[in-house]
Amino acid sequence: MTQIQENKLPEWWIETTLGEVWKVITWKTPSKDNPEDWWDWVDFITPTDFKTESKYLSVTSRKLSDLWKNRFSKMIIPKKSIIVTCIWSDMWKVVINSNDSLTNQQINSIIVNENYNVDFIYYKLKDSYNILKALADWGSTMPILNKSTFEKISLLLPPLPEQQAIAKILSSFDDKIELLREQNETLEKIGQEIFKEWFWRYKVWDELPEGWRVGKLGKILKFIKWKKPNDTSEVFIDWYILQILIETFDSWKVTYANPKNTVLINEYDLIMVMDWASSWRLEIWYNWIVWSTLSKIEVDENLKLMIYAFLKSKFKEINDWTTGSSIPHTDKAKIFNFDYFITDENYINDFNKLYWSFLNKILDNKKQIQTLSKTRDELLPKLMKGEVRVV
Fold first, then answer.
1. Which domain range does residue 62 map to?
2. What are the tens digits of pLDDT across the range 132-145?
């Protein structure tokens, strides 16, 4: 039976470097001028494919042709390798690829040999964020951790059986988190089908049922955005409260802030990301301070679930309308111009009851994910430093 005990770092742990024990590969982006290189055969991984905190990456936005795969077969990253982003704001995101893949120049990939446990090395790198950040070249306009520096990273490693035992404990948390995420994806799809059945049976130009009419979204909601709080802290300070960041949605990273002159959200208020790559992302259920890149959506309480489902159904259009070159941002004017159906109160109430049964389960799962993530993240550094040992 697995037991966990407190101990100092044992003498049989070894110190080595990434380059000494694993093969590190960095590649580049194929030219768009050669359309024959692009098809649907091989995953092509870039930092933008790291959508969540999921341990495994199995879906990419682009794929390469079989021809390209054959031409550069020596650069193929076999499945169950470790993929690490090494540039700019995406630096040091870590995943394990589920399929044979190729990557661009912003990624270093590690092919782990049979003497080491892939899952353990994954967690070891997850625990090394601050080390990697410190080693990056910050002298250029686009900070980067190059391959030669990456290969020299020093790591303390236990023997393989202990690697396997540690990885098993940490993986049990991630496996449960992944199941909850998959369940939420299913529930979100069901919720969307419910919304379509209730509100998309008609077009705005159709003859509508008695009591129905068409309105503009801008008439019933507004975005409330404020500047970044002046006083923030990575650790809790008395009377400071939690501040929600974009990273909070997936990694549960939190900071604390002075609530004076800030925008506060209540549980079940709607929040939309307004800037950067996650523009248009819609979330609900937090009870924290909103910082500058997020907006609280103010809407009548009885219409909140309908608006949440409506905006979820429009995510592609909202995303396509993202404007700005250096800093993309959500186009509020386009959202305000959306047509929606105004119905009687009883109809809305009946929809709320049905939709809430699915959304409530999604939110409960998110809270479980938050608890599991917090426990895993507290245990991770202790296991990686040998402060807590598995025997």
1. 4-159
2. 777 777 666 677 88
Work out the burial of residue 277: count CB atoms within 10 Å of its CB; fewer than 13 is exposed, 13-18 middle, 19 or more buried.
middle
Q: Is 80 helix (H, G, I), strand (E, B) or coil?
A: coil
Query: From CA 12, how far away is CA 302, in angstroms rounded?
Result: 63
User: What residue type is 289 in one-letter code?
Assistant: I
The reported pLDDT for the residue numbered 65 is 87
Residue 224 lies in a domain: yes
Q: Do residues 151 and 72 both lie within one domain? A: yes
Q: What is the dihedral of CA 53, 55, 61, 66, to 10 degrees?
A: 170
Find out whether 168 and 1 touch, Cβ atoms under 8 Å: no
pLDDT digits (tens, 9 = 90+) for 14-54: 888 888 878 888 887 877 777 888 888 889 998 888 876 78
Bridge partners, 223 (sequence order)? 297
Query: Which residues on neighbouring strands pair with residue 97, listed in sequence order?
Result: 57
Give pLDDT, residue 1. Answer: 43
Task: Looking at 200-313, list the stretches that DSSP marks H as alpha helix, in order from N- to C-terminal side.
Answer: 248-251, 304-313
Write down the residue that tokens 């959508």 correspond to.
51
- What three-state secondary structure class fits 347? helix
CB contact at 8 A, 385 and 123: no
pLDDT of residue 110: 92
For CA atoms 321, 324, 329, 335, the dihedral sign is: negative
pTM over 0.90: no
Alpha-carbon distance 66 to 71, whole Å?
9
- Bridge partners (DSSP) listed for residue 156: 15
Backbone angles phi, psi at 124, to 5 degrees: -60, -40
The pLDDT score that the predictor gives to residue 357 is: 92
Q: What is the Rg, in whole angstroms, of the alpha carbon atoms belonging to the chain?
A: 24
What are 161-182's pLDDT values in tens digits?
Answer: 999 999 999 999 999 999 999 9
**Is residue 194 one of the residues assigned to a domain?**
yes
**Closest CA relative to residue 184, chosen from 277, 52, 326, 20:** 52
Same domain? For 191 and 307 the reply is: yes
Measured CA to CA, the distance from residue 349 to residue 56 in angstroms comes to: 40
